[in-house]
Amino acid sequence: MKLKIANLAVIMLCCSAQASVQVQNSRGEPVDAPAQSVQQSSVQDLKQQAGQWGLSQDDYQRYQSLMNGPRGIQSPGLDPLSTLGIEARSQAERRQYAEKWVKEEFARTQKELDFQREVTAAWKRLYPETLAVNMGNAAGIAHDTGGRLALFVKSAGCGQCDARLAAVLADNRPVDIYLVDSQGDDGKLRGWAKDHHIPLDRVRSRQITLNHDGGRWMRFGNGIMPVVLQQGEDGWQLAAF
After folding, report:
1. Which of these three, 106, 128, 150, is where a domain ends?
2. In the chain, at which end, N or C, are there fewer CB atoms within 10 A of the end residue's CB?
3. Is 197 within the bounds of a domain?
4. pTM summary value
5. What is the pLDDT of residues 37-94, one digit of tens each?
6. For the residues of 128-159, what is the DSSP string, one character each?
7. Angle, nearest 10°, between helix axes 33-52 and 57-67?
8. Quick check: helix, strand or coil at residue 232?
């Protein structure tokens, strides 16, 4: 009889210990402590991700839901502000996300411009006799649009590229040259520039910049090769060359 009582006491003690590590959810139901820890971590991650874009947790959850649907297939990797703006439920909401996007883009662009200036200065200090290559910017063609042109050419298989290049250089206007098939190879870009006698002094003065395309031609060139673009009131437009 004493043995049974002792066993019963042990069982009750174990149950009591197990109950002590249980917590309750919002409905008063018991939840294991490890499960609650995972849930809290997920909420914290969601809050952090939303905060990086200046969004509420509800907004970010809607973004995740949209990207799990057709929008995620149509536009894989699309950022939260663009996604929510495109899929806005009202004009006011669309304007709100557009303003957020512009603010984020302005801040990002400013940081990249600051770094590009340092890169340019470093080229001049370290390799003054070498043609500088822009780091580029995936979001656009050129940020300095004060009358500048953007010329897209290929190094091979483009009979008209040399003629278009000559016309642009003869016009003596500032131009950002993008080599579409450079494949990110600085040596190939410099070799092309040397073979085509790109004026070194105009490169040093930034009147001419040499750039890897990075997909910009596909976005802005409308499939035309070669193509010269110029910044206008309605964005990038074909230039008369």
Report:
1. 128
2. N
3. yes
4. 0.46
5. 556 667 788 889 999 999 999 999 999 999 999 988 888 788 899 899 999 999 999 9
6. TTS-------TT-S-S--SS-EEEEE-SSS-T
7. 90
8. strand
